[in-house]
């Protein structure tokens, strides 16, 4: 069986955060696509302030023409390289698998791994 011996083993997100650098807003399914996601409903119940922050940032970007994707997530803390509201992170973030192809690709594009 063939294998790829050169790929580094990625065991945790510690010190990375690369996948949070290109998403601009927490990717809740229901925010702008009208699809339901329990995490979004929970956020509305428990952290209305965070909901309003996301909506306000989205509106401001639309008005000013700032990008709606491809920039660091609103919830990303560049100092700690962590999500500021990890317990409330969307399903898409929970399902993004450490060490899978997308993870490796985004790490490589952000200079975290050489390949
Ligand atoms: S790119 Fe991979 S290792 Fe980095 S934070 Fe995202 S899931 Fe974790
Ligand atoms: S919500 Fe949190 S985990 Fe998801 S992309 Fe934004 S900063 Fe990263």
Structure overview:
With 115 residues, the protein is mainly alpha-helical. It is 39% helix and 3% strand. The protein has one domain (18-109). It has helices at residues 29-33, 38-46, 48-64, 91-95, 101-109, and strands spanning 76-77, 82-83. Strands 1-2 form a two-stranded antiparallel sheet. Strand 1 (76-77) and strand 2 form a beta hairpin. The model is unreliable at 1-5 (pLDDT under 50). The protein binds iron/sulfur cluster (2 copies). One iron/sulfur cluster binds at residues 20, 23, 26, 73, 75-76, 83, 89-90, 93.
Oligomerization state: single chain
Q: On the 0-100 scale, what is the average pLDDT?
A: 86
Summed up, the helix count is: 5
Strand content: under 5%
**Class computed from helices, strands and strand pairing:** mainly alpha
Instruction: Give every kind of bound small molecule, once each.
Output: iron/sulfur cluster
For the secondary structure, the number of strands is: 2
Short description:
This protein is mainly α and 115 residues long. The protein has helices at residues 29-33, 38-46, 48-64, 91-95, 101-109, and strands at residues 76-77, 82-83. The protein has a two-stranded antiparallel ribbon with strand order 1-2.
Topology record:
Elements (H helix, E strand, L loop, with lengths): L28 H5 L4 H9 L1 H17 L11 E2 L4 E2 L7 H5 L5 H9 L6
Helix pairs in contact: 2-3
One iron/sulfur cluster (SF4) binds next to loops.
Please tag this protein with its features.
115 residues, mainly alpha, two-stranded antiparallel sheet, 5 helices, 3% strand, globular, disordered N terminus, binds iron/sulfur cluster
């Amino acid at each position: 069986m063939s294998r790829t011996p050169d790929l580094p083993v990625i065991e945790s997100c510690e010190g990375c955060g690369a996948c949070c650098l290109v998403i601009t807003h927490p990717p809740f399914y229901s925010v702008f696509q009208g699809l339901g996601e329990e995490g979004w409903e929970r956020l509305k119940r428990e952290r209305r302030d965070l909901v309003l922050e996301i909506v306000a940032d989205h509106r401001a970007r639309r008005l000013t023409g700032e990008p709606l994707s491809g920039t660091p997530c609103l919830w990303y803390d560049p100092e700690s390289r962590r999500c500021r509201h990890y317990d409330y992170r969307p399903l898409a973030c929970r399902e993004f698998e450490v060490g899978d192809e997308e993870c490796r690709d985004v790490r490589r594009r952000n200079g975290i791994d050489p390949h």
